[in-house]
Amino acid sequence: MSAEPDGPEDRLRRFATIWSRAVFPVTSTSSTRPEFEAQLLPLARRLSEVLRARGFDAAEARAVGAALVDAHCTDPEALSRTLDCVDAYLVLYCGEDGDPEDLRARSARLQHAMAAGFAEALRARTLAEQEAIAQAALKAQGVVAEALHASEARFRAVFEGAAIGIGIADLDGNVLQVNEALMRMFGVAGPTLGGRRATEWTHPDDAPQTWRLYDELVRGEREHYHVEKAFYRPDGTVLWTNLTVSLLRDADGTPQYQLALMEDTTERRLLNLRLRYEATHDALTGLPNRSFFFERLEKALSAGPGQRFGLCYLDLDGFKTVNDSLGHAAGDRLLVEVADRLQACATAPGEMVARLGGDEFVALTTGPDTRHGVDELAARIMNALLAPVSVDGRELTVRGSIGVVEGPAGERSPAEVLRSADITMYRAKSAGGNRFELADPEADARVITRHGLTTALPAALERGEFFIEYQPLVHLGDGSVRGAEALVRWLHPQHGVLGPDRFIPLAEHTGLIVPLGRWVLEQSVRQARLWRERYGEGGAAGPLRINVNLSPCQLTHPGLVQDTVDILERAGVAPDALCLEVTESALIGADDDLLKPLRRLAEMGVDIALDDFGTGYSNLANLRRLPVSVLKLDRSFTQSMQQFPADPVDLKIVEGIVALAHSLDLAVTVEGVETGAQAEQLRILGCDTAQGWYYARPGPPERLHELALVDATG
Question: Rounded to two decimals, what is the model's pTM?
Answer without folding.
Answer: 0.52
